[in-house]
Design brief:
The structure holds two protein chains of two kinds. Chain A is mostly beta strands. Chain A has no helices and eleven strands. In chain A, the strands form two sheets. In chain A, strands 2, 4, 5, 9, 10 and 11 form a six-stranded mixed beta sheet that branches. The mean pLDDT of chain A is about 95. Chain B is globular, with a radius of gyration of 13 Å. The model of chain B has no long low-confidence stretch (mean pLDDT about 95). In chain B, about 35% of the residues are buried. In chain B, the strands form two sheets. In chain B, strands 2, 4, 5, 6, 9, 10 and 11 form a seven-stranded mixed beta sheet that branches. Chain B is an all-beta fold. The chains are: A mainly beta, B mainly beta. At the A-B interface, strand 4, strand 5, strand 9 and strand 10 of A face strand 5 of B.
Amino acid sequence: GENVEQHPSTLSVQEGDSAVIKCTYSDSASNYFPWYKQELGKRPQLIIDIRSNVGEKKDQRIAVTLNKTAKHFSLHITETQPEDSAVYFCAARDSGTYKYIFGTGTRLKVLA
Amino acid sequence: KAGVTQTPRYLIKTRGQQVTLSCSPISGHRSVSWYQQTPGQGLQFLFEYFSETQRNKGNFPGRFSGRQFSNSRSEMNVSTLELGDSALYLCASSKDLNTGELFFGEGSRLTVL
């Protein structure tokens, strides 16, 4: 069935370092890949997304890359700051059903 | 513009009871989806509604049901509650089925004793 695997489940980095979170999807019909950030006790919020016709997208300190052949996509955060500490979820959306499948989340801790 | 509103925010039930959760989407949004969030399991898809029709359903037992009203508000119901149903239930709305961004509510935290 449809599945999105997300790694690592936890990630600790020093402030100023980079962080990378990786996801793999199984459904070849997926064509939209968003990333959501959920701060403690708050709702998930979209931080960046990428569509299947694009290989990379960047927005200030965050970037997402997509490898359709390998069915991999990754979130890159550079120059991490304490406020980047949160749980990050990747997701893949099926192009036919529009159904979202989320990864299990990565808890990122940025150490000051 | 008001965000997605979920009620109640917190509730405690006992095994065997049933519960109804409500979600009011952002004005103008016609798609509402529901997710169960538990530690280590991420966001598991329950179902999605668009124009009062269930478009997609996740792999949950029939005890989980939902509906959408003509004003796009949605409810989900869980009957015969089990301890494992304790979770944060998140509702998300989007303008249309093909619109990318999901806007989440703050969730309803259900504890089953």
